[in-house]
Amino acid sequence: MNKAKKLYLETFGCQMNVSDSEKIVTLMKGIGYQQTADPVEADLVLLNTCSIRATAEQRVYGHLGKFKSMKKHKPGLIIGVGGCVAQQEGERLLKKAPFVNLVFGTHNLHLLQKMVSGAEQGKQSIATDFLDDEKRFDLFPHAESEGGVSRFVTVMQGCDNFCAYCIVPHVRGREISRSADKVLEEVGALASAGVTEVTLLGQNVNSYGFNDPGAPDFADLLRMVARVEGIERLRFTTSHPKDISPRLIACFAEIGKLAPHIHLPAQSGSDAVLKQMNRGYTRAQYLDKVRALREACPEIQFTGDMIVGFPGEDEACFEQTMELIEEVRYADLFSFIYSARPGTKAAEFPDEVRRAEKQARLERLQAAQKKITLARNESFVGSVQRVLVEGPSSTGDALFGRTGGNRATVMNGDPALAGRLVEVRITQGLQTLLKGEVLDV
Binding residues for [4Fe-4S] cluster 1, per the UniProt record (predicted)? Predict the structure, then answer.
């Protein structure tokens, strides 16, 4: 018998890349590759990359150096790079890393089987063309529906906002929405396979259907997905604050399956910086959306993103960001020092903030957010939360799940509860998770 071929796949960046990686695994199974967690076993190494920040791109090249060493001892090893760095770098990537066998961009997953088969015959290839045809979703496979409690479902690709700092429109292309029928077909298949929670994905899900007059909008799509039998909980990400409509806000009050959590990146608390970023809203407008969401769903939990040290951010602007996080009281906040990305508008701006000052601001912000996160987690002690059990905890001696507000939770209980929503009394709130006891089920 021929030895089974092994795929080692590493994923960087956002949930969209995680979703794409699921599709990659499905495609590679179609040509005889089984996934392995051990790169030493691999016949094929694929990196699905992110270029949203310079540090993410640098990590990719660092990893490639490691696999270059492996290839010296295993000359037949195939190495491929996909995702946003591949889309951005294209042929430059092959010049920097000539030992790489294939480079595939964000619109080219459908070519991957052919490219890998070519690499098996010694061919080096690159595919980074954008596919602007509105039917391009039909070229991408569904991830396999077997297994898992919670899965991602892509509902749109690309972005039309062109925030000054953001590389996404340049590496993912313009917005295109998937048909509601195709989304429902995939969600139905997942539900039939035992999946109980789905997260609808897009660079800006709020603009779903904007470019297709007469088609369902995102609020319509949420209501349709919530009616799929077997789906018990529904999430979505990511939301651009300027595009949150009253109809979407109402969904949090009216759709019982919609989790009380929203990822709502502010990026800054300063109107001057928001304007420079081309975000399309003011601080007051952002806070109006936060208040409206809390009125619709008092228990809603907010997470977000914040950029520190953007060109033009002085100390007064930064203080306004600090005030914003105290006012919103995010459950979690992903915060980063600004890094210029090639091709973006902000790369042309003069950057006058010293690196040491940027680092000091980031540390102040993260210290403040750490206190807020701990206080919010401690506030759950004594409450009863509905937790979707995902499976064993990392230590294997308890169960792991998430509350509707997306709080990681560890509890004792029967492993057979995986995939079920259970009532959990919270006994402890820690920095990164909750602990609790499953009530009678």
Answer: 14, 50, 84
Residue 438 is predicted with a pLDDT of 95
Other CB atoms within a 10 A radius of the CB of residue 339 amount to 19
Give residue 143's pLDDT: 60
Q: Quick one: which of 264, 254, 311 has its CA closest to 289?
A: 264
Residue 172 CA: distances (Å) to CA of 51, 52, 87, 138, 162:
11, 11, 8, 16, 12
**Annotated binding site, which residues?**
14, 50, 84, 159, 163, 166
Asked whether 206 and 248 are in contact (CB, 8 A), the reply is yes
State residue 17's pLDDT score: 75
Binding-site residue ranges for [4Fe-4S] cluster = 14, 50, 84, 159, 163, 166
Q: Does an H or E element contain 275, and which?
A: helix 271-277
pLDDT number for residue 145:
54
Report the C-alpha gap between 18 and 32 in whole angstroms.
Answer: 21
Measured between alpha carbons, how far is 185 from 155 in angstroms, rounded to an integer?
A: 12
In the chain, which stretches have pLDDT less than 70? 1-2, 52-56, 131-147, 441
Residue length of the chain? 441
Q: Which pair of tokens denotes residue 325?
A: 């996080």
Question: Cα 414 to the chain's mean position, in Å?
Answer: 30
Kindly state the helix (H) or strand (E) to which residue 401 belongs, with its residue range. Answer: strand 399-403
- What local confidence, expressed as pLDDT, does residue 137 receive? 64
| Omega prior to 49 cis, within 30 of 0 | no
pLDDT for 206? 93
pLDDT at 1: 45
Query: Could you tell me the pTM of the whole model?
Result: 0.84
DSSP string across 420-437: -EEEEEEEEE-SS-EEEE
Tokens of 161: 């906002």
Instruction: Classify each residue of 60-94 as buried b or exposed e, where b means 16 or more C-beta atoms within 10 Å of its C-beta.
Output: beebbeebeeebeeeeebbbbbbbbbbbbbbeebb
